[in-house]
Amino acid sequence: MKKFTTLLIGCSLALAGAAFAQQPDDQASPGEKKHGKKAQAAEAQSGAAEGRQGKAETGAAANAANPQGAGARQHGAANAQAPQQGRKGQAGAGATTDVSGQAQTGTAPADAKGHAQKRSRGMSAGADTNAAPNAATSTNTTAQQPKGAKAGSSTSAMTQPRQAGKGRAASKPAPQQVQQIKKQHASFRAQPRPQQVPAVTFNQNYRIQNSERWQGPQYEVFRSYHPERHDAGWYRSHYSRVELIGGGYYYFNNGYWYPAWGFNPSAEYYAYDAPIYVGHTAEPPDRVIADVQAVLQNMGYYKGEVDGLLGPLTRQALTEYQADQGLVATAVIDEPTLASLGMS
Fold first, then answer.
1. What is the Cβ-side half-sphere exposure of residue 260, based on CA atoms within 13 angstroms?
2. pLDDT tens across 181-221, in order?
């Protein structure tokens, strides 16, 4: 019994001791409890910082193993932060970003700087390359439009007669010069030159080439012309003027001279078979041809002699002059050509 009591007392004391040992935690003051929580939070933050530092060291080790990848990631982070930094003004030039996303000022890593410099040089080169074609285009546009030219001037220039070719005068002779030439030829008489200017033969089916395309009443006589052969009596009964000019007989009708085929079979030298316009003054055709040859010679179109014959060189000069003046290229002396030369 005594032993049982002793054992019971011992157990009670043990329980009382255990309860007493737990009492300081349960009965601690509020200040002591608050201080204990701050200590635990500080330890938690310290552990988190150590974890971040460990991750940063791990990332730094990885960057050391792959510098290009690290530079690219840092460059991408810097690009991502650039707009936000510009808006908020929180970070200056050269700011980078740490692992926690906080902006840090300082010098960028060497790899990131090199990558940024290469990219900057590439962008500059691209800008220069793109600017070059634009500059060339603007230069060409300026060159095409003369300074001070009015809008639409190039379009209107295309409708103007082409400019005189090499060795030709830029303008027509003055009226005084034309009158002087006509005075020099007041007594001019053409002579046959069969060796230099071969004669044409009679062909009743002959038609002036391309004359069907010449539009307008001033070209009607050329469109309708066809050679006719008659004797001298027939011509004298139909026309008041029939003259021997340059080796062949011509008759005058309504401002034109025509070859009088058959008037005298022994005098049928004609350099060209076509009407020749002289106007109602009825000047002899060889004199008018000589005037035209002299004027075209002064302008650089005619290269032959002034002989009063409508030969190949004269017809070529007429064709070129008519084309340059925007006239119908008839290769003969017609009313528009004589008026253009100031001789009508």
1. 29
2. 999 999 999 999 999 999 999 999 999 999 999 999 999 99
